[in-house]
Design a protein that fits this description.
heterodimer, A: about 110 residues, hypothetical protein PF0899 fold, 3-stranded antiparallel sheet, B: about 220 residues, Rossmann fold, 7-stranded parallel sheet, 8 strands
């Protein structure tokens, strides 16, 4: 499990930004997480309650937007979102593909009071 | 209710510490390799083979990362110039090394007396892909008994490797590992990757691996 450290980072980012905005409560944090990143939203949620306790982030709702895996074919330049896990270009069947999306992990925005 | 736009990388804190680690390593002219693989693929064996071949040419330090035990550190301590064990069992990240752990390990190492630092990550093909440590090269070991589908199953770690070592070549008569299929899938995701076929048991191919390592280290020094 490596979601504890990641959850701590999320809470730190949220608290910093809330302080800058002079907010008194964090209501919702929107997080973008790539399909190919090794992070599990359920685990982040599990740790969040514990990490955010006694802070203005306590009780905030976490919303995860899943960024799909995206590849670009090096042979025919087709950009595709694979439906299976063979990472093969659907147009020309080339296996020479560049990973262009799916590794995202960032706090996009949040709602505060 | 107010909406605040943020767009901030959650791994930024780790990446910042990693870049500080790399700066410290560069100041001491230490070339660092992050060695990643699933458990049992041969990380410690490759480290021992590398030290045996290169210890007359280079002063080699080792950072051992494990969930528990000092078994690996005990194996290499007589061979390496210096060893530090990181046990992740009681840390917030248990399944991979993160830059902060390496930053503490670097403080325990005589960096001025080390040319090459081999960092053995925790055995895992998923989590180590996400955390940079400050290394100069990323190396993944894949061994024959694991099967030839690993680059397809774990694309992130293979797509970002500088070199991939195919270990346990001596198992070839006993397992259905299609080396050509493995290399094709790997090169598809990562056309620039260097591939080495080795057996840490027999020593086959270790020389090629070591000369690449030596070449990369020398190139990094002349580039400074």
């Amino acid at each position: 499990m490596h979601e504890l450290g990641v959850t701590e980072s999320i809470v730190n980012i949220a608290l910093d930004k809330a302080k800058e905005a002079q907010a008194s409560k964090i209501v919702k944090i929107n997080i973008v997480i790539g399909e190919l990143s090794g992070f599990v939203p359920d685990c982040i949620e599990f740790y969040f309650d514990f990490v955010s306790k006694n802070s203005i982030a306590e009780g905030a709702k976490l919303h995860f937007e899943l960024a799909p895996a995206e590849f670009r074919c090096r042979t025919c330049s087709t950009i595709f979102h694979p439906h299976d896990t063979t990472w093969t270009c659907p147009e020309c069947q080339s296996q020479s593909v560049e990973m262009t999306g799916g590794r995202e992990l960032y706090v996009e925005n949040m709602e505060v009071e | 209710m107010k909406k605040i736009e943020i767009v901030q990388n959650i791994l930024e804190a780790n990446e910042l510490i990693a870049s500080q680690n790399q700066r410290l390593l560069d100041e001491h002219k230490v070339f660092a390799i992050n060695i990643m693989s699933s458990p049992g693929a041969g990380k410690t064996s490759l480290i021992l083979q590398t030290i045996a071949r290169l210890k007359d040419k280079l002063r080699i330090g080792v950072v051992e990362g494990d969930f528990a035990s000092t078994i690996d550190a005990d194996k290499v301590k007589d061979e390496a110039a210096a060893v530090v064990q990181i046990t992740t069992r009681n840390m917030s990240e248990q399944c991979a090394l993160i830059a902060n752990m390496v930053s503490h390990a670097l403080k325990c190492l005589p960096l001025g007396d080390i040319d090459l630092l081999l960092i053995e990550n925790v055995g895992n093909l998923l989590c180590p892909a996400e955390f940079v440590l400050g290394e100069h090269r990323r190396v993944v070991i894949s061994s024959l008994p694991e099967g030839d589908d690993k680059p397809i199953k774990y694309p992130v770690i293979f797509a970002n490797a500088d070199a991939v070592v195919i270990n346990k070549l001596d198992f070839l008569p006993y397992v259905d590992f299609d080396i050509a299929a493995f290399e094709k899938a790997l090169k598809g995701l990562n056309p620039e990757v260097r591939i080495f076929r080795v057996s840490c048991k027999t020593g086959e191919g270790i020389e090629n691996w070591c000369s690449w390592l030596l070449g990369e280290l020398k190139a990094s020094r002349t580039g400074k």
